[in-house]
Amino acid sequence: MLLRLLLLLLLCAGPRFAALADDGYRLWLKYDLLPEGSARKAWQAQAKGISLDNNAGPTLQTAASELQLGLQGLLGRPVPVGAPGGKGRIRLRVAPDATLGQEGYRISAQKDGIEITGPTDAAVLYGCFALLRQVQTGQLPDKLSLSSQPRIQHRLLNHWDNPNGTVERGYAGSSIWKWQELPEVLDPRYQDYARANASIGINGVVLNNVNASARYLTPEYLRKVAALAGVMRPYGIRVYLSVFWAAPKVIGGLPTSDPLDPKVKQWWKARTDEIYQTIPDFGGFLVKANSEGEPGPQDYGRNHADGANMLAQALGTHDGIVMWRAFVYKANSKGDRFKEAYEEFQPLDGKFDPKVLVQVKNGPIDFQAREPFHPLFGAMPRTPLVLEVQLTQEYLGFATHLVYLGPLIKECLDSDTHSQGPGSTVAKVVDGTLEKHSLSGIAGVANIGSDRNWTGHPIGQSNWYAFGRLAWDHTLSSASIAEEWTRMTLTRQPEAVAAVTDVLNKSRDIYVRYTTPLGLHHIMGQTLHYGPEPWLAKSDRPDWTSVYYHKADSVGLGFNRTASGSNALSLYAPGARQVWSNPATCPPSYLLWFHHVGWGQQLSTGRSLWDELTTRYYTGADSVLWMQQRWEQVKPALDARLHADVAARLRIQHREALWWRDACVLYFQTFSRRPIPQALTPPTRPLAEIKQLVDLYQLR
Ligand code: BDP
């Protein structure tokens, strides 16, 4: 009796993520006991055990143990693995199925139990996590019939982690990779990281920063990378490396890194062969070249295709890919940074090796809170394009502002490039269906660090989650993902689920309102990219200033990208261009991206530009108070510690929303010379005082 009680206690205490009450470590894989009731009973009857083939490989065994772990926690009972079939058992079976691709799964209720099948071990693993999701979100097992396959082939996290443990633009502690301890010490966290990724379908991880160190290609580091690959492998995850273009010079002792030099080619070929000897399922390379001071093929008069193709040839018959980033721009005060990646890459369409994908950020500038979709989408039909989004909130308030990114990612995926007529969405470009590519990919710049809760802001976890779910299936709605995540991670209480998802769904628009309404962009604090600095006029490069982007003057505000301005609009297909080209019909949220609008100009909202701008700054900041109130309402339904943590961060968020509001309203007022609309209370502090705040943050 005592033993049984102990066992039950252990099961209910939760699975492998042994943790304090709720410190966020368990992410969405919490598996706390379901409340007593019909759902728990029904699942208990269906999940008396798990059976699988005797000769199951590591991934299938992992699938079974993950399913066991989850079900035992959720159902509060032992769920043995491996016992023979029988009624009420869950069967895992690998079986060919041409309709499911490589990674798709099918879950079906059979007469004697549930069956999870798929053409590969990884597919069954995804099916197990999908079944757990059903149980966690309160679905019932009867008439269970589910099947799903990923729409995008390579679903990757990009870590911007450095060998010394720092994370570029990381706000959740230091890197989770402990290079100095590898390969001997395998922090248990690596496995927990792998399971979290597998649970949402992420199948690849670029371990290191795009501003890469050459040392990752040394034998010493490859052994460390191999150790991590060993942890990821049973979870269907392959590892990739960002490479430093000048590695042949820096660690190879060659006089050049020219991609057409035979010795350089040979060097990369030898390195690549060595990598595959150490890591047979290595995924491939990510490259940032000739961008922001990084070396690249242009240093030798070659172009991006020359560089990418040389690496693709080095991969040879190995099963790997090259992801070559299109994030490039030169400092040219007269030009428009918006157009630069397009101008460099579009002419190279059709010139890349079949193993190369070009990786393009969601928007043309740099991960701003709202950007129009990047004009390269739809403009390179002969090249598979990887969509890169940023989960770490570099320009979105770090780990202090609550911003759920589902709507941002979705907005980009759903954008219509019109490249092949209406309906040519970014999603269809990226998943390869529009332009008939068999290779496809999507990448999220990770927001993960060594903080106990992984993401610093507890709600940041939802961005990791949403990225994975959308990478798997971009037709899911961001709202349904927010709800699913909330139920799995925070609470099962229906009103609280509704309130939290309401906050999540509106949070991105609120952030845009109090920082960069109406299509303003890149007016944040220099270098650190935190807080407002719209007055920034001097920097190492003109396109790192704010005035370059907002162009405020006595006439109005905004960047004229029409034919009378930089003409960046001409990069879009006519259908897409049309939406934005007329200031009278351009959606207000994109207005200042494309037009210099007079302060007194009446907008479609009925207000003048100045009144609309100020109103949005004010309502944005006020909406943070609304978020706080909504958050207060859910207090009884949430873990107290987690609730308090988010509440405290919301207080910072409100203070800083006021900072943004006052800074921008007062600064732009020096150009508009108009009064703050009567319904709003003017800021009480002078602009000079606010400017000092920025200095404080930037530690200058
Ligand atoms: C910018 C970041 C910089 C990155 C760069 C990139 O500020 O740290 O290295 O993007 O994506 O947003 O390469």
Helical region count? 21
Number of domains: 3
CATH superfamily descriptor of the largest domain: Glycosidases
* Order of strands, widest sheet: 6-7-8-9-10-11-12-13
What is the fold-level CATH name, i.e. the topology of the largest domain? TIM Barrel
Strand content: 5-15%
- Alpha carbon gap, first and last residue: 66 Å
Helix-strand makeup class: alpha/beta
Regions with little confidence, pLDDT below 50 for 5+ residues = 1-20
C-alpha-based Rg, rounded: 26 Å
Explained architecture:
There is one protein chain. The protein is an alpha/beta fold. The chain has 3 domains: 110 residues, 2-Layer Sandwich (Chitobiase, domain 2); 336 residues, Glycosidases (TIM Barrel, Alpha-Beta Barrel), CATH 3.20.20; 186 residues, Alpha-d-glucuronidase, C-terminal Domain, CATH 3.90.1330.10. Helices cover 38% and strands 10% of the residues. It is built from 21 helices and 15 strands. The strands form 3 sheets. The chain has an 8-stranded parallel beta barrel with strand order 6-7-8-9-10-11-12-13. A 5-stranded mixed sheet has the order 1-2-4-3-5. Helix 10 links the parallel strand 10 and strand 11. It is globular and about 80 Å long. The N terminus is likely disordered. The protein binds beta-D-glucopyranuronic acid.
